[in-house]
């Protein structure tokens, strides 16, 4: 939802904020959008009023999320360009079916669908391998999967490489905040960083792939996670969904997953 603060801010201020977040000069943005740097300057200072088409063109070059593109349009007095539906709405029926089919196809690997704030939207049966033993209140909707992962009453006590995994998640959140400017993610980062961790590290370990190693009744399991997003979405909700899949990182984990799937 667009905030009142965003609606009250001049569209030029919002454009400048996004350009600076992307670390682009006015000249670079103008070149990409095929307009003059003077025109970009006039739009940011309010000396020129942007057209709907120009806002969409600049948004594309700045890789602005669909929700924030709607905010820009509203700030300029235009109607939003991108709809937002709940997964239970009729127009989203095909998307909801596809998500269900994907989650089933990913079995026996655990997989979850999360929204932009890492709230659990859906998951397959294998997720129980990861969440077994977590406090019941952390599993009550809305479930935040990052909170569930790092909370001392969640998965954290069973994560063997908690310091490494925690640093990886916080580093990932930092990148997401830099890309979106979402204050909710900033609050979530502060909360997660405050959770106790005996082997906490302050920086990302810098590895290309960071596994999660977790103790379970079936022994220690190791997973590598991958993230899948929907290509070229035109709905705000779909654009903000991601499928996080945990693949077996060793032969022992693969065998446990195989037995789970039988």
Automatic annotation (TrEMBL):
This is Helix-turn-helix transcriptional regulator. Pfam families: HTH_3, MLTR_LBD. InterPro entries: Cro/C1-type_HTH, Lambda_DNA-bd_dom_sf, MLTR_LBD. SUPFAM superfamilies: lambda repressor-like DNA-binding domains. Residues 15-69 form the HTH cro/C1-type domain. SMART domains: HTH_XRE (SM00530). PANTHER family: BLL4672 PROTEIN-RELATED, BLL5781 PROTEIN.
